Amino acid sequence: MASRAPSELRDVYATDRTPIYLARLWDRREYVLFVGRSELRSRQMTTILGNLWHLLNPALSIAIYYLISGVLLEADRGVDNYTLFVTVGVLVFADVQRATMAGAGAIANNRGLLQSLGFPRAMLPITSTVTESLATLPSLIVIVFVALATGESPRFTWLLLPVLLAVMAIMNLGLAMIAARGSSEYSDLRQVLPFLFRLLLYCSGVVFSVDVVTRGRSWNWIFDLNPVYGFISIARWLIVGGELRWQWPASAGVWTVLLIVGGFIWFRQAEDSYGR
Predict the structure, then answer these.
(1) d(CA 196, CA 193)
(2) CA-CA distance, 108 to 183, in Å (whole number)?
(3) Which of 8, 94, 103, 263 has the most C-beta neighbours closer than 10 Å?
């Protein structure tokens, strides 16, 4: 009986050309979804309320921001339905923040796996982004509940909110890839990111009306350059209606393309260094 040739061993740090690399990622899509769902289920297994925290966490965050910003700081000036205004702003911003922070730990938290197995390293930030996107889905229930509870009538544009979040997930993936490589090379980045997001929160109109704050000033265009502000503003328009400014989808769309393409290229350039 003829002996079979031994299978080719693959260097765990070896990289492929981009088309092959993308094909290998696509072949593992079911695994990414499985890991994302499993991670989401395991997060609350040791708590008494379990998965109910997926609803309670955003609700508590909204209540805190409403109390501090709306009641104490009176940031509700110029906003008709401030409760819903804050709800949409906080939940959309939290989605971006969680995805980026999870991406920052994607490489650093999996060095043992990276040193043992050969696979497209982009699977790690992709999986973390998918997990956080799934964690955001209960937020849709919170937004709809608050909208109805505060007197808003259902609109057909509410059905487009999941589409908006799907587009935002693409931007989040770009940010996650940038954060993944950045934190793998500079571990202090994970400590700095919370402060950067705290600054970004106040530059995104999360808890105050940008139109009121910038009225009579010439620098309101700075907010239009912020993709997070664009996504938040579009989400508010989908829920409440009103004016849809072209700057919002333009900023969100351009930044989404730049971040996913630039993030992927920048992440791939260091592919063979992760885990070493």
Answers:
(1) 5
(2) 7
(3) 103
